[in-house]
Amino acid sequence: MNDYQFKIVKIAGDFEWHVHEETDKLFFVLEGEMIIDFRDGRVKISKGEMYIVPKGVEIKPSAEKECHIMLMEPGSEVNTGETEAE
């Protein structure tokens, strides 16, 4: 939609620290529960809840158990922001 993609993904465990410099990032939890760590705190998002991370904020998403989420971001956005995958 308007150069944005809605991505349905499953996550489990820790993701790497990263930042999206040019765009906000929307997380919507479809099933389960996830955590988004920030350098100065964290937020827990449960089924049916949504959270928008402002552009330029460093995050580390994680989930103790498998969690199904929908992401909304520009189609050209790499899932780790400016961080190169190892």
What's the SSE blueprint?
Blueprint lengths: L3 E11 L3 E2 L5 E7 L1 E6 L2 E6 L3 E4 L4 E17 L12
Antiparallel strand pairs: 1-7, 2-7, 3-6, 3-7, 4-5, 4-7
Observed structural traits:
disordered C terminus, 86 residues, seven-stranded antiparallel sheet, 0% helix, mainly beta, single chain
Helix-strand makeup class: mainly beta
Biggest sheet details: 7 strands, antiparallel
Helix content: under 10%
Q: What is the overall shape?
A: globular
Spans of at least 5 consecutive residues whose pLDDT stays below 50 are 81-86
Give the C-alpha Rg: 12 Å
% residues in beta strands = over 45%
SSE order, one letter for each helix or strand: EEEEEEE
Secondary structure: number of strands: 7
Helix tally?
0
Q: What is the straight-line distance between the termini?
A: 30 Å
Mean pLDDT: 88
What does this structure look like?
By secondary structure, the chain is mainly beta. It is 0% helix and 62% strand. The chain has no helices and 7 strands. Strands 1, 2, 3, 4, 5, 6 and 7 form a 7-stranded antiparallel β-sheet that branches.
